[in-house]
């Protein structure tokens, strides 16, 4: 196994049979030919044909970088912010999911970072943080 790829032959480009080079991480956001540059994109790239292959580890790396980019671009709450706001109200993850309508496991996923918080939930939690008196009314309605 070479860098998570089953064998060295898999590292050869299927188009030109040249050896691919490993890219530890290249930037998300650049569109164009060839391997992207900067952190966020990992994989094995052929300089001659622009073909690439990606291991499961490469994809996890890229997915995490894309989640982080989305949070930044859309101004969404980060997992630690979601947890801080929830704990500020003394709610369990299950209670927070019920109060916001996100479902019983939503906050567990938000806080672990396995699901990115939507713009609506991010804004709702920001409003609740500014108007904590509303949480009791929401608990009654849940």
Describe the 3D structure.
By secondary structure, the protein is mainly alpha-helical. Residues 5-9 and 25-39 have low confidence and may be disordered. The chain has six helices and three strands; from the N terminus they run βββαααααα. 45% of the residues lie in helices and 6% in strands. The chain has a three-stranded antiparallel sheet, with no helix packed on it. It folds into two domains: 8-74, Ubiquitin-like (UB roll) (Roll), CATH 3.10.20; 79-141, lambda repressor-like DNA-binding domains (434 Repressor (Amino-terminal Domain)), CATH 1.10.260.40.
Give a quick summary of the entry:
By secondary structure, this protein is mainly alpha-helical. It has 6 helices and 3 strands; from the N terminus they run βββαααααα. Helix 2 (79-88) packs across helix 4 and helix 3 packs across helix 6 (134-141).
What is this structure's SSE topology?
Elements: E1 21-23, E2 43-45, E3 52-53, H1 56-74, H2 79-88, H3 93-100, H4 106-112, H5 119-130, H6 134-141
Antiparallel strand pairs: 1-2, 2-3
Helix pairs in contact: 2-4, 3-6
Question: Which properties best describe this structure?
Answer:
mainly alpha; Ubiquitin-like (UB roll); 434 Repressor (Amino-terminal Domain); three-stranded antiparallel β-sheet; elongated
